[in-house]
Amino acid sequence: MTSTAIALFTRDLRMHDNPTLLAAAEAADRVLPLFVLDEDVLGSSFLSPNRATFLVDALHDLDEALKARGSHGLVVRRGDPAVEVAALVAETGAEQVHLSADWSGHAQRRRRRLGKALADTGAELVLHDETIAVVPPGAVTPNDKDHFSVFTPYHRRWLDQPRRHVLDAPSRLPSPTVRKGRIPAAKSLCSGDRAPHLPQGGETAGRTRMHGWLRASVPGYEAHHDDLYGDRTTRLSPYLHFGCVSPTELVSKAGRSRGGDALVRQVAWRDFNLQLLAARPEVAVEDYRGHGDRWRDDEEAFTAWREGRTGYPIVDAAMRQLVSEGWMHNRGRLITASFLTKTLYVDWREGARYFAHHLLDGDVANNQLNWQWVAGTGTDTRPNRVLNPLRQAERFDPHGAYVRRYVPELAGVQGPEVHEPWKLPPEVRADLDYPEPIVDLAEGRQRFLEARQGGAR
Ligand SMILES: Cc1cc2nc3c(=O)[nH]c(=O)nc-3n(C[C@H](O)[C@H](O)[C@H](O)COP(=O)(O)OP(=O)(O)OC[C@H]3O[C@@H](n4cnc5c(N)ncnc54)[C@H](O)[C@@H]3O)c2cc1C
């Protein structure tokens, strides 16, 4: 009798180096490749217009790749994944359901519900914990705790961990005949404005980007990854978030190149955040290390920050990059997040929510925990440091080219005044339509430090 396995795709939307898909293909004669548009996600802030667009691109790309391997293509359902999978098990007689382990609160609830639903059907749920993570949560722990709270010792252990081989894409994937279902239009999943300059989603685009970057940019990464204008980072984060590119394949390939260690280290941060979230799912909303902060409620300043009109060009350029591309350079994220949580002393949760709406790579582990890191409520060992946007601009955008690219009002300003337009003669400033600074940096810093000292527990 012909055997069937279901490969339930989540954020592992790829053919290459996908242990979940490959295990399903090895376990059975036919694989039913399934994606469920989860009602819990569709109705929540998890799905934003930008991410819906990228997701739909990735689903189409996967569908094509499956068809090229003899499958009928991606089966799409909408509803509760547990209910939809159980129904397909009943329809096809599938004996196994293969799923990539994931560690957000939502993913853990989904896995539990699926396990329960399958218990009645007789089908087995097979979890794969090395599809989304390189080193999964729990694989390395300190002696006395269930997770690492400092990155450097974690990274050391992470590097020593044996790593699985990179897997080829399956060559053939025959599938059973079931109603296929349609990949919806992105607009029907999530209404609202999309960023005007979104990259193409999906594995094909992700692999092209990965290979291009590996060919050209590995040696310069360590020295130039903070250069805002140079834009020398991989920009692979959305592809890693949706699993269109495998983190294991990326670190394996980058690690073989001279200078690749610096990139490998950044990808380890991703696993570090995942192991923290897995152990403390509440950090999605609660401080990891609270200081008794009484954050300021300053709607006017928060609006200026969101709109990229704070009067600090480096902050405004980065905020406008986010809205324009659904992505922001890491150095920009550090500068803008420090400005919001420290100089303005506004709650990191407000900033994280705004980022999550726009970012293509927005995910609970990396977004919330990086925000907490910058706000000093997370794992930074120097929680009260405040980044000075002017010093940051001097170091990471010394010629002002990043600011000119994203803040058209300042495109014609030459010299250091591009970062300090208040130093321009009044008659020039009057023509710029660019705001005065909304806060004095020294006063903001002082206010933050006093509040922290006063409120620290
Ligand atoms: C306030 C704030 C919010 C952030 N929110 C997110 C988010 O929602 N999703 C997200 O993927 N990253 C987030 N980051 C981390 C980092 O900014 C992005 O991963 C990076 O800018 C993505 O660009 P890249 O792919 O070119 O990175 P590269 O420099 O090319 O790095 C390669 C990969 O390593 C991983 N990586 C790099 N830096 C970090 C980091 N600090 N933490 C975790 N993983 C990292 C990413 O997967 C990235 O794609 C955030 C950082 C800050 C300061």
From TrEMBL:
Highest taxon in the source lineage: Bacteria
Name the record gives this protein: Deoxyribodipyrimidine photo-lyase
Cross-referenced InterPro entries: Crypto/Photolyase_FAD-like_sf, Crypto/Photolyase_N_sf, Cryptochr/Photolyase_FAD-bd, Cryptochrome/DNA_photolyase_1, DNA_photolyase_1_CS_C, DNA_photolyase_N, Rossmann-like_a/b/a_fold
Cofactor(s) needed for function: FAD
The Photolyase/cryptochrome alpha/beta domain, residue ranges: 3-133
Family indicated by similarity: Belongs to the DNA photolyase family.
Keyword terms of this UniProt record: Chromophore, FAD, Flavoprotein
Cited Gene3D superfamilies: 1.25.40.80, DNA Cyclobutane Dipyrimidine Photolyase, subunit A, domain 3 (1.10.579.10), HUPs (3.40.50.620)
Species for this entry: Nocardioides panacisoli
Cited Pfam families: DNA_photolyase, FAD_binding_7
Coiled coil stretches, renumbered: none
